[in-house]
Every structure is written in C-alpha cells, then in structure tokens.
Design goal:
Elements: H1 3-20, E1 41-45, E2 49-51, E3 55-57, E4 59-63, E5 70-74, E6 77-78, E7 80-81, E8 85-87, E9 92-94, E10 104-111, E11 118-126, E12 131-140, E13 146-153, E14 160-163, E15 166-168, E16 170-174, E17 177-182, E18 190-197, E19 203-204, E20 208-215, H2 219-229, H3 235-244, H4 246-255, H5 277-290, H6 294-304, H7 316-329, H8 334-343, H9 345-350, H10 368-378, H11 404-413, E21 417-418, E22 442-443, E23 453-454, E24 460-461, H12 467-479, H13 484-496, H14 503-514, H15 524-533, H16 535-538, E25 550-551, H17 554-564, E26 568-569, H18 580-583, H19 621-635, E27 642-643, H20 651-655, H21 659-671, H22 677-687, H23 693-705, H24 708-711, E28 712-713
Parallel strand pairs: 2-11, 12-20
Antiparallel strand pairs: 1-4, 3-9, 5-6, 5-10, 7-8, 8-9, 10-11, 12-13, 13-17, 14-15, 14-18, 16-17, 18-19, 18-20, 21-22, 23-24, 25-28, 26-27
Length: 714
Amino acid sequence: MSRVMCAVFRGFACATLALTTGCATSTGINSPSSPIALASTVSISGASHARVGTTVQFVATISNSGSSAVSWQVNGVAGGSAAAGTISSGGLYTAPATLPSPNTVSVTAVSKASASASATVSEAIWNPVPIVSAATAVQTGSGSNIALDVTGSAFVQGAQIVVGGAAVPTTLVSATELRGTAGPSTGLTTLAIAVLNPNPGAASSAIGNAQIQRLQASLTAAARLLDQATFGPTLNDIQHVQQVGLDGYLTEQFAAAPTIEPDIATPPPAVCATNTILCQQSEWWRAALTGNDQLRQRVAFAFAEIFVISTNSVHAESAIPFQNMLVKDAFGNFSTLLQDMTLSTGMGAYLNMLNSAKPASGQIANENYAREAMQLFTIGLYELNQDGTPQLDGSGNRIPSYTQAQVQAFARAYTGWTYATATGGSPTTFPNNAMNFDAPMALVAAQHDTTAKTLLNGTVLPAGQTGTQDLAGALGNLFAHRNLGPFLCRQLIQHLVASNPSPAYVSRVAAVFADNGSGVRGDLKAVVRAILMDTEARAGDTDPTFEGGHLREPILYLTGVMRGLSFVNTDPTGYYGTLSNYTAPLGQKPYAAGSVFNFFPPDYAIPGTTATAPEFSIENTASTMLRLTLANSLVYNSISGFKLDLSAASALGLMAANPGNLVDSLGVIFMHGQMPAGMRSAIVNHISTLTDPAQRARVATYLTITSSLYKVEH
C-alpha cells in the first residue's frame, strides 16, 4: 500500500471514529475517548384539523434523549388559551368554542430535557357539525312562501337551511335557531330539512322532516284582530285564529252563545250586602275576562259607552239587565237594539223616560231622553254626509239635524211608560213604584200624550195613536234617518279599531249599515264584520308603520294585560269586583261614567292638534303615573283576588334563561309580533344584566306594557 493510500485510509478511519466515538485530535493518530452526544429531535403526530369545541390527541416523540417528557404550547402560550384552544400536559388539545381568525393555530411540543429541542405543527380549526333538533314549516295562505324555523345546536354565521337539497334564504337567530323562507309548495305535506354550516370544514346535519302547517292568518293579523275584537289576546286564541282565519274566527264568534250576567241575589252576597254595585261590577269583569263570546262582549262594551247609563244614579240591579240586553242584541238589527234600549228600565231611569207622564195643557214633557236619543245615540247634532263629514249650507255653516220643537215632539211620543208589574204586564197605577228591573217598561195608556207630533223629515205621528204606536213611529223615524249609519258606525270604529277613521272607512261601513247586501238596513253583524275586515282595519297586519289605533282606555288596558298573562282568580267566593279599585284611579269603572257623555266624548281632540283621540281626554300627568303603578302591581302579582304568575317557574320565567326568547314572547302577546328591533334590543340588553329569572320576566313585562307602543293599540 502506498504512503498516499495509507494516509487516506488513516484519515477515513479517523473520520469514522469521530462519527462513532468522537476524535481527540493531537499531533499523532486519534485515539478512542468518551462517546459523541447526538442532538435531540422532537416530532408531533395527530390529526391536522379539529372542529370547534372538539379534542385532538397529539403525541410527541423525542429522539436522542433519555427523557420523553415535553411541555405543550398553543400559539406560543403554555397550555394554550380560550381563544386559540387549550392543551393538557398529556397533549390533549381542546379546540376553542368559536372559530378563531385566522382559523389555524400552532401546536408546539418542547423537550423538558432540552429546551432547544421542539417541534410545531399547524392545526386547522373547522366549523362544528350542526345538529337539528326540530323544525317547523308554516305556510300562511295558499300560494305564499313557507316560513321555516329550525332549532338545534352548533349553528354558525353563514349557516343555511337546506330544503330538499337546495339552500334557502336563511337568518341566523342564535347558535340554536335559524329562520328561513322556502318557496310555495302545493301537494307536499312535509319538507326534507337539514342545516349546512359553511367552510372552513363545511358540514351538514342529518336530514329530518318538517310537517307543513298551513295557516289561514299570520301571527300579526291574528293578534291584531283579537286586540280589536276581544278584551285582550291570549296565546291560545292567537294560535286558533291563525288556524281558522280572521273571517272564520268572526263566524265562530257570531255563533257563540252570549254570556249572560246573573241577577244580584236576594239578599245580596256578603261582599255587596251594603252596596250592590260591587256585585254588578264583579259580574261585568267576570264576563269580560272569561266569556267565550269575546266579540259579543267587546261590541256590547262599545254600545255601553255610546248608550250610556251609570250606576252613579241608577240602581245596580237595572245595569245587569241593560248589559244583558246589549249582549243579546249586539249582532241583531239596530232597530231591535234601539227599541230594547229605549224601553230598558236602566235607560228609562237614567234619562227620565221612566214615569214621564203626558204634559198638562201648555206644558212640555220631559225632554231628557228625547234630546239625548238624537244628540248622542242616533243622529248627532248636525246633518252628515255618508262618510261622517258635516253637510254645510250655502254659507259654509253646519246644518242642525233637529230643532227644539222636534225634541218636544219626541218627548211627547215617549210619555206613559213606567215599571212593569212582576209578571211583565202594564200596571194600573202611574207611576208604578214597585220596581221591576228585569222586564221592559210597560205602558199606562192614560198617561200617554195622544196629540199629533211632527218629527224629522216631515214625518207626522197622527193624533189618537197609542203609546206603542207613537214609540214605534218615533224610533222608526230615527232609524230611517240618513245620519244614523255614519254617526253610529264612526263611533263603533273608534271603540273597536281607530280614533281617527278616514271618511272613506266610515263611508264603506255606513254603506253596509244602509244595506247588508241583501237589502236589510241596520244589520249589526254585517256592520261589525265590515268594521273589523275593512282594509283600513287590516292595514297594520302587513305594515307596522301604518298610523291607526287608539289609546287603550283603563278597562281595556287592565283586561288586556291580565288575559295576556293568563290570570287566575283566587278569591274564595269568585269575586271579581276588586278590579274596579285599580281602574277607578284612572277614571273608569264599568257602568260608572260621570255623565251621559261617557267617560270620554267621541270628538275629543288632543290639544294643539286636529287628531281625534277620545280616550286621551282622561289621560294626564297623574293618570300616566297611576298607570305605571298599575303595571307594577300587575307584574308583582299584587292584584287583590287574582294571581298573575311571573315566578321563575312560570311560562315566562322558564323562558328567561334566553332573554331574546322571553322578549319575543312578550312581543307576540302584547305587540302582535311587531315589537321594533330597537326596543327589543334595549329590553334584552337590560334584562341580561339580571340573574334572577323571575326578575327578568317581571322587568321585561313591565317595560313592554308601560311602553307607548302598548298603551296605544295599533
């Protein structure tokens, strides 16, 4: 071997030794010494992605080290963080609950034996797999789109409802609820529904079926009709009207048996032994709050505020049959109602037709009922067009609808009536002081004025007629007057729908009063239907900005809240009369108006405006504060004899865990599902600061029912 090759060999051997044992180099040949230490290396194994909220097990492997212990970091933070995810000492990574931005994180393992030895992998975070728990599909009216509501979990921004394999327009309500809209569907009874979460990691839920529920009315339309036609919507009633439709509900209500108030017992119950008005008011409240004939009761209430009698001056025992008469006649013909009202002992006593005798020669009969029957009950002070606007003479002045001479003529036509006998017959004495409140007044012929009487529009009642004939002629004269339709219909619209009906609205309803389509004048059932189904009454069903409605008078405010909150009477005797104690400070109790002009006049206008707003005549600074006090009593279950449950265990209390759901439910009950977004957000944000579910329910309810948007029925 040559010296060169030997030198090469010796160099190779030294390099080999250096690699295996290390080289101690000196001037001579390398000799063996301590072993050479290789650098430690770390590697990581595990899945390359994780869905939010899930876990991934990472494993760290260390080479060239006597220790396998490592410490873990996420995005450089030992143990990780809530935003990027956390990792245990054993390498179990838990992805964050929400998607980070960017959606990748770094997972690092560092050798505990050598801090310089580490490894890092990138972990992609994906959206969760959505889970569908339930889905509803509601179609309101044939040919309309289908409203979808899907509940479940793990819904994220950008999630879409998929119907039959195709995504539909979707709104994310929360991580547990989506709402969407599918196109019209005919012939199908179910829809195949899933939820698709978007990238990163797009994933679909399992497919489920939703039964298509076909409704006849929207929630808003149903709730608004009930607000106009009852003493307050309930959730059950709203759902029922959605099922049967607005017209179907009215048809049901027209057919419902009337709720009749019982006479006050003799002797009276202990609660009203010294004041029978208390029992009369108790029965009125009971019928208004619990009667199945809600529309009939509400229309009767409107008539009671047009044809006013008051227990401030008449016996409570006469108010009950008067109320029952209004209830029975509410859907009949107005001519019947006019006669029954005229002959009722309550009206007779209140406006002095009872015991009004024929006048002596040169004297006049009592004019009270004759005047008010025209001025307030039938035709008003001035001649009207069909749309309720006044007719004007050539000088632009209003034209009086009657004269003083005609008042006196009507007064004589109404003479000779007194209390009927116990069997309902005519007494032999006049006046009859044996009071019979249940029967109509009876005629004593000798006390009736039989002279001729010139009435309206040239009508003359000839001399020699009986009291019954004169009464029929006088009432027939009023019934035929052109003012009656617009005068009466405008007031009914004000009580049921809107303080300021347009002249066109009044005209349309007055036309129905004049002819129900079958040639019949005065058909109240047709009139009520026309009022409630008119385009102006229904405009707010689809347009929440439509200007209409009226201030809730105190009675309707109280009944609306109580029915909406599912009140329960807890009085051991079933007494309802304590409710009058809560509306009296606000200026109203059943059958207790201060005068024949009702609690508020129909033509009252808000000062400084031309807006007619009858109920505002009893609204002032004091009553505003008292209404807030009443609302506080309601939400804190402080109405004597009643329970309004807003505890943590109540229906609304159970919803309080989700403030949005709680406020939405209140919006359905009290605002027809039309609570403005700003108001909703304000209430949700406020109650979210409260931890007690009952307090959340109470505060949310209070803020809703004291808002101007509830006080004024829209």
